[in-house]
Structures are given as C-alpha cells and as structure tokens.
Specification:
The chain is an alpha/beta fold and 237 residues long. The chain has one domain (6-174): HUPs (Rossmann fold). It contains 7 helices and 7 strands; from the N terminus they run E-H-E-H-E-H-H-E-H-E-H-E-E-H. It has helices spanning 18-30, 46-60, 77-82, 108-123, 145-159, 174-196, 219-234; strands at residues 9-13, 33-40, 68-75, 127-129, 164-166, 208-209, 212-213. The strands form 2 sheets. The protein has a 5-stranded parallel sheet, sandwiched between helices. Strands 6-7 form a two-stranded antiparallel sheet. Helix 6 (174-196) crosses helix 7 (219-234). 42% of the residues are buried. Bound molecules: zinc ion (ZN). Residues 200-202, 204, 214-215, 218, 220-221 line the site of zinc ion. Zinc ion is lined by residues 200-202, 204, 214-215, 218, 220-221.
Length: 237
C-alpha cells in the first residue's frame, strides 16, 4: 500500500457499482479526506441507492476508512426526465441506430461532473474521482479521457480554481478492475466489492453469483461476470 501521508482531499462520484466502489477504495488510499456524491435521476432501481450505503459502510470499517467523510445525494430527476432511456424508463436494452446501447444517457458524465464540481468547490475539494472508462464502454463518448480532459479544463476555468478529475479505471477492462481491487485491499476488498456493489440494470439481487448479485443476462451483468472470469483465470489458484 502506498500511504505516504496524503494531503489532498477528493470528492468521489459514487453510484454504488463495481467501478465506483473500486474508485472509492482507491481514493481512500490516495487522499487524506474523501467524500462521496451520488445522483438520483430517477433510476428504476432503489437498490442502487442502498448499495451505495452498503459499500460505504464496509469501506469505512477497513484501514483508511477513517478518511471517509460525508455522503451527498443530489436530486437530478429533472435531468433524468430529459435523458429518458432504458435506465430511467421501461424500455428494452438494445442497440439504437447510432450503435449505442439504449442504456446510454446522453451527456450524463458532463452533467455529473458539473454538479459534482460545484459541490466540491463548496466542500473544499480540488479533486474529483470518477469511474469513467473508455475500455469497455467505447460507445459512450462522455466516458473518454479526451472528454474528461476538456471538462477538467472547462471546470477549472469556470470555477477559477484548479479542478483535477482523476479516472483510475480509464484504461482498465473489467478484469483489470477486479485486479485493482485486489491490489488495493486483497481478498477482503474484493469480497466487499463482490457482495455489496450493484451493477445489474434490472436491479436483481436475488442470487449471489461468483461475480456478485445480478440477473446474469443484462449487458451490465454479462460484462461484470466476464471481467470476473478473466481476472480469476489470470490468478494462480
Ligand atoms: Zn443484470
């Protein structure tokens, strides 16, 4: 572990999924003070909001957990109404004509980063941490590092203060994200991410699979299960 008395503080964009749970663990190792922000934009599944609390509670009990501060949930239901998609309405998950899955919420990360930066400004954080990743989600243009770089510059100019957006998962695939969790906190952290984080688009939490809870067939579950299998295959038994 690289815990060389960090002096920075960060606000983690935290949905309660595998990616943001791993990002939160990463930030707790790297920053002296860490707070979390979640966005309620009318997701179908309240289970995601519960997963946020469960992940936070588990990470607070680990080494470094004393650095975990307040949690904020921002109501973006107005945005959710604009950005209606399979995540926010009862529509099938399918590819649309542009080749993007119907779960794509237009400009979601632009909105989240803007709102998060205002909160970070008020709370005295110079760093935002987000789980954006261009490896598995190349169809999502607002997940790409080029977009994040442009946002970082716009926010720094618009707030007239240095804003850094850290994206530790940007170039990792889902298997490598499990490996990162293991590197950060060994089997214990992997188990926390596996059992408390929530990824499934359908909000299914009935059965605990190797890779965690979920329906096992939606695109999010398939990606998570595939990543788990790839990571397990890469680890000596
Ligand atoms: Zn699922």
């Amino acid at each position: 572990m690289t815990t060389q008395s960090p002096s920075t503080s960060a606000l983690v964009l935290f949905s309660g999924g595998q990616d943001s749970a791993t990002c939160l663990a990463w930030a707790l190792e790297r920053h002296a003070r860490v707070e979390t922000v979640g966005f309620d934009y009318g997701q179908r599944h309240r289970v995601e909001m519960q997963a946020r609390l469960d992940v936070r509670e588990a990470l607070a009990a680990r080494p470094g957990g004393e650095r975990l501060g307040e949690d904020f949930v921002v109501d973006l239901s107005g945005y959710g109404a604009i950005a209606e998609s399979a995540l926010t309405a009862e529509r099938a998950i399918e590819m649309d004509a542009s080749g993007l899955p119907s779960t794509f919420v237009p400009g979601r990360n632009l909105v989240f980063l803007t709102v998060a930066s205002a909160l970070a400004y008020r709370r005295g954080h110079g760093v935002l941490v987000g789980g954006m990743c261009e490896t598995d989600y190349s169809g999502y243009p607002d997940c790409r590092r080029a977009t994040i770089d442009a946002m970082q510059q716009a926010l720094s100019l618009g707030l007239d203060t240095g804003v850094t957006v850290e994206t530790p998962l940007m170039y990792l695939d889902k298997g490598e994200t499990w490996a990162l969790a293991h590197r950060l906190g060994g089997d214990e952290l992997v188990e926390i991410v596996r059992t408390t984080s929530h990824t499934c688009y359908l909000g299914e939490r009935g059965e605990l699979h190797d890779w965690g809870y979920g329906c096992g067939t939606c695109p999010a579950c398939e990606l998570r299960a595939k990543g788990w299998a790839a990571w397990r295959a890469s680890v000596p038994a």
